[in-house]
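Subject: for your reference before the review

Hello V.,

The reviewers asked for a structural picture of the protein, and I figured it would be easier to keep everything in one thread rather than splitting it across files. Below is the amino acid sequence we used in the manuscript, unchanged from the supplementary table.
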Amino acid sequence: MNLADICIKRPVFATMLILALVVLGLFSYADLGVDLYPNVDLPTVTVTTALKGASAEEMETSVTKPIEEIINTIDGIDALRSVTKEGIATITVQFVLEKNGEVAAQDVRDKVSTILSQLPVGTDPPVIEKFDIDARPVMRIAVSGKRNLREVTEIARKQIKEDIETLRGVGAVIMVGGQERAINIYVDPDRLAAYNIPVSQVKRALQAQNVEMPGGRVDQGRRELVLRTMGRIGRAEDFNDLIIANFQGRPITIRDIGSVDNGTAEARGLARLDGQNALQLTVRKQSGTNTVEVVDRVKARLKELGSILPPDIRTEVISDQSRFIKTSIEEIKFHLLLGAILVALTVLLFMHNWRSTLIASIAIPASIISTFTLMRYMGFTINNITMLGLVLAVGIVIDDAVVVLENIFRHVEEKGEPPMSAASTATREIALAVMATTFSLLVIFVPLAFMAGIVGRFFKSFGITVAFAVAISLLISFTLTPMLSSRFLKFKHKGKSSKESLFYSWTDRSYGWILRWSLRHRWMIVMAGIATALSTIPLFFAIGKTFIPNDDQSEFEIVIQTPGGYTLAETDRLFKELEEKVKRLRGITNILTSIGDTSGKAKPGEGDVTTGSIYVRLIDLSERDYSQFDVMADGRKIFASYPDLRVSVQGVSVWTSGGIRATDMEFNLRGPSLEKLQEYADKMITRMRGEPGFVDIDTTLSVRKPELRTTIDRKKASEFGIQLQDIASTLQTFVG
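And here is what came back from the structure prediction:
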């Protein structure tokens, strides 16, 4: 007795078998994450090292090269690249795909830790991060208010940022464009000279006399006390009374040589929403979490905070990845449902029996829903790739059920067999053909899960999802389909059969005529088949190719690099001028400008002020008859009159935070001479700009900032008993 016969005789067993898979699938569906693309582990590690004030050459020699040399000893490196700028070096280590990303990151940390003592004094500890495609920024929030930016920053940090960071699924919240509180000590050089006090002594006094340190334990016999030295200054004005030296027998305080200001750190960035000052909160989600749920959770919390925040504080979600994800997934769901309905109607059109149509159509939802169980077990998410597999599977999973059902229906209709015996006989008769068909499909889709390269990582979920859906459809065709046919399939022997219907007769005559004509003109059919196959070669080269499709998400950003040496005020003036021109583009709803560091790695008062981005939000695609790319092309025309700017008009990347230049193609030039490399790069850029199809061409060669160099007369310094390091330290304290 085979499986089909068991299910025919025991309908409860067949029903519960398939129902168990469906129930598991329904519960698994509720736990599946929703994202745009699969979570792919790409073993890539970045090492970011900062040395404030260092030139690009100094960073290259004393920081970048030592770190590169030690990292290069790690096994499994596929590519090692670095970009060195004034004060910062970024090294990107790309490992072979077979290496585990966590292991790769730990290997880099271990190696870099061995040379920390060899780095120049003042170098910040290297920041080592594993590239996690799933822990990316998912939304940007603009916070503004009718008060000074320092107060808005404090409110945003304590009442919004710290609150959002506690939500489940939120990995980090990065603040951009705020004004950090700082206590500034202003020193009068003339007063210092009058008291014969070097500025380094003021610096040491501030460090030594504003501390709170543990002092150990004090044993009092029956009890034990913890000893603490209380030296932390509690109020800003108390710094005025801090003693820094003694002059002629009396203490010298900060009040004697300068003043104290309870103000803000030097501004090295800003943010602006639609021309009004604001600050930006970039929300980054945790790896493995549901993007849509995280965004919805943050939005709900922002709505709750609205009743707690001061009335003039306004929060607005500007960039939100869940909008496009929801639209994309809902569109796929619609086509999934539409495909299922059309397949069912096709069965009804040929069989002319609504009972057989329902029996066959049950295979579609049962197979698709059961597949969710495997997706959850494998750690897949509902994304464009897996949903593409399910949409494709809609037309495939019904095949086995239709083949089995049609044979059962033929036995009942043409041979007059009872449905019970017809179900058993017909299923056994067609079983080998159905299994061969299903296994041939599995042979096609299962190997996709073992494809090599990055593309294989993305299509792994696609191949497994389709293969499992097809396998479930085979199980249904041998269990549920014959059982339902034996119980519910009815046929009245009065009237015309399904093959005598008008549509079937017309289809049969048309196909017969085409088949006879083809047999009479065999060579013509063969030549047409060969020509069709050969035509795919030129068509393949004519079709555009890309890794990730450029979708119209109703948003894009303009990444701008100003000439070296621009101050924040000058960069801000230029951006305001550009904002006015960008606002005139069609379909603009919001413009969010960010200048300075957007990664959250820069310390207060530090960061490059010559880089920034303008995020542009468009009206919804359904409300316009032009594409996002048309607006982007219009935006590029604006910057044609600004030859000194390095500009990239690009779509918002789903992998990185905003303000980072995205490239579709890169050329690497290598050589010992930096001047020659720059010369060759300029020639290539000039030629590429003359070729159609290239836009936003740029080089990673950093923009050099103008320098003011101090040359020390060592002989005179020696006569005054001054070390060169003392001079450099004094200049750094006064100027830096």
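For the response letter, the relevant points are probably these. The mean pLDDT is 84. The longest strand covers residues 276-285.

Happy to draft the paragraph if you're swamped.

O.
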